Amino acid sequence: MKKSLFTYNYFSYRVKAVNEHGVHSPFVFDLLMNVIYNRNDFYCYRSIENVREQLLNSKKVISVIKQTGDRENKTSEKKVRQITKQFSKSPKYTQLLFRLVNHFQPPQIIELGTSVGISTTYMATADSKIEVITMEENQEIAEIAKQNFKLLKLKNIEQKIGSFAHFLQYLLSKNPNLYFVFFGENNCKQGTLNYFYLCLKNVNEASIFVFTDMYSSPEMKEAWDKIKDNNQVTVTIDLFFMGIVFFRKEQVKQHFVIKY
Fold first, then answer.
1. Which of 122, 84, 126 is nearest to 104 (CA)?
2. Which among 214, 183, 178 has a CA at the least distance from the CA of 196?
3. What is d(CA 82, CA 7) in angstroms, rounded to the nearest whole number?
4. Using CA atoms, how far apart are residues 22 and 224, in angstroms rounded to an integer?
5. pLDDT tens digits for 105-142?
6. Best label site of 135, 231, 232, 254, fewest CB within 10 Å?
7. Residue 73 clears pLDDT 70, i.e. is over it
8. CA nearest 198: which of 221, 241, 167, 160?
9. Residue 188, SS3?
10. 113: left (phi over 0), alpha (psi -120 to 50) or beta
11. In the 8-state DSSP scheme, what is residue 244?
12. pLDDT of residue 250
């Protein structure tokens, strides 16, 4: 996205965004005060951020295969620190993932896009009883994440390596109810919408979907607008770099733009 358009979108967000004083929904107000605006330093933050720091200082180079749709996919060499910087969400947002999971206690989490596993570890650390199923298309990147899971002694994470569509179809056939889905690594409009519509078949009133990079391109903004307008979606919270979607039938359909 052109920098000027991104700046315009961010300026528009800042103009529209409100804090807790502009929210009149008891559900969203409680979420703001107890989760989104919670500044407590939780027990796991330091250990996970230590892992992030090690990754950002790593000199390791790995092969990354880019899916092109052709018979021969493109392979490039990338530094682990480059992958970490580019694809791992900042502490501000990964720690929010932890607080969301800690607050809602979903029995199962599905993550589309493990990358080096920073977001995964935050969600898995919230409660060792929660099953975290995370998907990554690149074998070598998944291996780095696996090492990080071992380092942090996390045993409630199940890794799937390969096509998102393939594993997602399988998981949906085995799990009639989805509780928490993190669409973590997909800045493509059609891919985002395809996975959203797939998951939509298995939502219930307790389901929570979390999206990122909604304003990374005009196409992603279009995808976010379609998600907000969907008839099954009742409440959305727009934090600009992250969007939270709820399906609570008792709620009047509302879209909240929140300062964060």
1. 126
2. 183
3. 24
4. 22
5. 999 999 999 999 999 999 999 999 999 999 999 999 99
6. 231
7. no
8. 167
9. coil
10. left
11. E
12. 86
Q: Would you state the pLDDT for residue 67?
A: 58
pLDDT reading at 174 higher than 70: yes
Tokens of residue 196, six digits: 């959203």
C-alpha dist (Å) from residue 76 to 66, 79, 222: 8, 10, 30
Which residues fall within 8 angstroms of residue 36, CB to CB, at 6 or more apart?
A: 96, 99, 237, 239, 258, 260
CA dist., res. 141 & res. 114, Å (int): 8
Measured between its terminal Cα atoms, the distance across the chain in Å is 22
At 2 the three-state DSSP class reads coil
Provide the pLDDT for residue 4.
84
User: Could you tell me whether strands 157-161 and 108-112 are parallel, antiparallel, or unpaired per DSSP bridges?
Assistant: unpaired
Find, among 243, 256, 254, 255, the residue nearest to 96 by Cα.
Answer: 243
Residues across the chain: 260
Contact between 28 and 256 under an 8 Å Cβ cutoff? The reply is yes
Task: Please return the burial class of 90, using the count of CB atoms within 10 Å of its CB with bins 0-12, 13-18 and 19+.
Answer: exposed
Q: Which residues pair with 160 in a beta bridge?
A: 135
The tokens describing 175, both together, are 């799990």
Q: In Å, what is the CA distance from 89 to each residue of 134, 142, 249?
A: 15, 16, 30
Q: Which residues pair with 11 in a beta bridge?
A: none
Residue 251, pLDDT score: 87
Strands 208-212 and 74-79, sheet pairing: unpaired
**What is d(CA 56, CA 204) in angstroms, rounded to the nearest whole number?**
38
What span, in angstroms and rounded, lies between the C-alpha atoms of 17 and 129?
35
